Amino acid sequence: MAWIAVAIVGVLAVAAVVAWRFWPTGESDVAVPARVCDNALPGSDVKALLPVKGKPFSQWHTGVFNPDEPYVKKVPGTCKVYGGGQSVTIKHGLYSGSGYTMQDVARDASSSGATQVTLGEAKGFHKGDTTSLFANCSSNESNGKTLVEVDVTYRNTTDQAVIEKMASLAADTLRLEARKLWACEGADALPNGRPQVG
Prior knowledge:
- By secondary structure, the protein is α+β, with helices and mostly antiparallel strands.
- Helix content is about 30%, strand content about 30%.
- It has helices at about 1-20, 45, 100-110, 160-180, and strands spanning about 35, 40, 60-65, 75-85, 85-95, 115-120, 120-125, 130-135, 145-155, 195.
């Protein structure tokens, strides 16, 4: 009889563990849409960074993100997306004149604690909580040397996999804005796909 009681207790313990494992936690899925930031960027890059469950997805943007919208003027933009208690901020803009050059980018990419990021002729780095990517942007609208810059700020990390996801989002943003908004010469030569990290 004792072994039957032990067996029943064992079955109940297993059932309790299974029920606990599959019991709803009360957290809903973070439903990242297919396109984010004024429908300009693929949601898959953002989804790769945000938690799967938690607070619902939300976003806001200022300035310009989608160059295909009819209201677009050539101005920098900032987009912030939220979900699962985390946030990602994406910014793009121009450095005009010689205040910051690709030589400065190379110096900063080689500094202590920085991880280099390369996308064809575009160069950048990850440091702290931000991945930055720069490309030369001479165009009819710019006077002299100009750089287009994209910053993706997420969280302070040295995790290579997380940096690669941030760099991928930066690359998608750089290609879009350099080609379609800022009309940078040579922007069409920026390769598709993920940038090289490290």
